[in-house]
Amino acid sequence: MVNKKLIALGLICVVLSVGVIGAVMALNQKDNELQMKTDQISGLENEKLTLETQVSSLQANVSSLQSEATSLNNEKTVLEMQVSSLQTEATALENENSMLETNVSTLQTEKATLETQVANLQSETSSLNNDVDALESQVSSFQTEVVSLESEVIQSFDLGYAEGKSEGYQLGYDEGYLQGAEDLTESGWYLRDPTYSEAITFINSDKTEENEYTNDYLCYDFTADFNDNAGQAGYRCGFVYIEFSDSAHAIACFNTTDNGLIYIEPQNDEIVTLTVGQVYLGYIIVDFGIIW
Q1: Which end of the chain lies in a sparser environment, N or C, as judged by fewer CB atoms within 10 Å?
Q2: What is the pLDDT along the chain (292 residues), one digit of tens a residue?
Q3: DSSP H helices in the chain
Q4: Which residue, 280, 244, 278, 266, is CA-closest to 124?
């Protein structure tokens, strides 16, 4: 009986031991599972911390990138302003270049015009020099003619005087005087100074100004014809030679008995004044002289 109880108790103990061992094993398994869960949680927390660190780093990177983006935007704005300024400056330079090209074109045109004017002036100077040479030749011819006329006057007077003396002094004197006066008047040398009124009347009646100015009929031709016409009218007329710095001109003059010396431009019958240093016909008078 005792043995049975002991056996039963043993069995109970065995059962309890087995249950305890099973319970312990179950607890150990739970502990292992719990440890694994804990390890997983720890791993997840570590991953969370890592991710949080990465997120924080990314946020820092994002912030840095945003700052960099802001800085780049600012630089972009500055560059856009610089580009706009450069474009404005380029436009201004293009406008200035266009103006300079226009100025260059204008200056080239002015240069060509000036070169043409210089060529014309050189041609005119050459022509005026030829006129001066011709005028000097004509003056020399006039002087030769004057000498010849003086000789003729003297011969006529001597002849008349000699003939008059042979027939009687008074008769010879009268005939010689009349013949000499006639010869002198016909030659244009025995002339008188007009009054101012007579000079104006002659100027108004003379038609020399109606002649055409050409390369073969110049200022001294006008003056010579005016002078000859005045001589034909019995008036002493002066040939005025005007000197400019690089050219010359000719006009006429009368020494009126009541109003003094007057100068006449025979190309238009204008009464003019002459003084050294005065501008006449666009030129400064250097000197002038009168040939009677």
Answers
A1: N
A2: 556 676 777 777 766 676 777 777 777 787 788 888 888 888 888 888 888 888 888 888 888 888 888 888 898 889 888 988 888 888 888 888 888 888 888 888 888 888 888 888 887 877 777 877 777 777 677 667 656 655 665 565 556 555 555 555 455 545 554 555 555 545 445 699 999 999 999 999 999 999 999 999 999 999 999 999 999 999 999 999 999 999 999 999 999 999 999 999 999 999 999 999 999 999 999 999 999 9
A3: 2-167, 169-187, 196-205, 219-232
A4: 244
pTM of the predicted structure, to 2 decimals: 0.39
Instruction: Give the helix/strand (H/E) hosting 277.
Output: none
The b/e string for 154-187 (b: 16+ C-beta within 10 A; e otherwise) is eebbeebbeebeeeeeeebeebbeebbeebbeeb
| Dist. CA 46–CA 64, nearest whole Å | 26
Q: Give me the domains of the chain, ranges plus CATH numbers.
A: 191-292 (3.30.460.70)
Contact at 8 Å (CB) between 268 and 204?
Answer: no
- Triad 254, 216, 113: Cα angle to 5°: 105
